[in-house]
From TrEMBL:
Organism: Sulfobacillus thermosulfidooxidans (strain DSM 9293 / VKM B-1269 / AT-1)
Domain of life: Bacteria
Protein name: Secondary thiamine-phosphate synthase enzyme
InterPro entries given in the database record: UPF0047_YjbQ-like, YjbQ-like_sf
PANTHER family: UNCHARACTERIZED PROTEIN YJBQ-RELATED, UPF0047 PROTEIN C4A8.02C
Database matches in Pfam families: YjbQ
Matches recorded under SUPFAM superfamilies: YjbQ-like
Coiled-coil zones: none
Homology family: Belongs to the UPF0047 family.
């Protein structure tokens, strides 16, 4: 398993980690299999989405901000970041991508994103490769 680190710079952002995951696949020389990309944080998610047009990331974050309020009557979590936990539940903590002929099998416009919902912070994500 590979533990990769990154720094986030905003409360909410989506960072394209595709090049980092591709580097792990190349390092390991996996030709056929899968890559599991996982966030060990309760306020940060992993997702696959469009990485060609930055407006997609903008729109996803805008929708989440407007749909899930930072403060909500009845939220009881002492740290005040219940919104971040809810966003992770919606987005998911991992993604699985097929590896074929040594390459991540992503669609033409797809990338793998680390989604920060409670930053800025120093974060990790883990990559586990299965295959040969």
């Amino acid at each position: 398993m590979h533990r990769l680190s990154l720094n986030t710079h905003q409360k909410m952002e989506m960072l394209d980690i595709t090049p980092m995951v591709r580097q792990v696949v190349a390092q390991e020389g996996i030709q056929e299999g899968i890559a599991v990309i996982y966030s060990p944080h309760t306020t940060a998610a992993i997702t696959v989405n469009e990485n060609w047009d930055a407006d997609v990331v903008h729109d996803v974050l805008l929708f989440l901000r407007q749909t899930i309020p930072t403060r909500y009557p009845g939220f009881r979590h002492q740290e005040g970041n219940s919104d971040s936990h809810i966003m992770v539940n919606l987005m998911g903590s991992s993604a699985t991508v097929i590896i074929e002929q040594g390459a991540l099998m992503l669609g033409q416009w797809q990338g793998i994103f680390f989604c920060e919902f409670d930053g800025p912070r120093q974060r990790q994500f883990w990559v586990q490769l299965v295959g040969q």
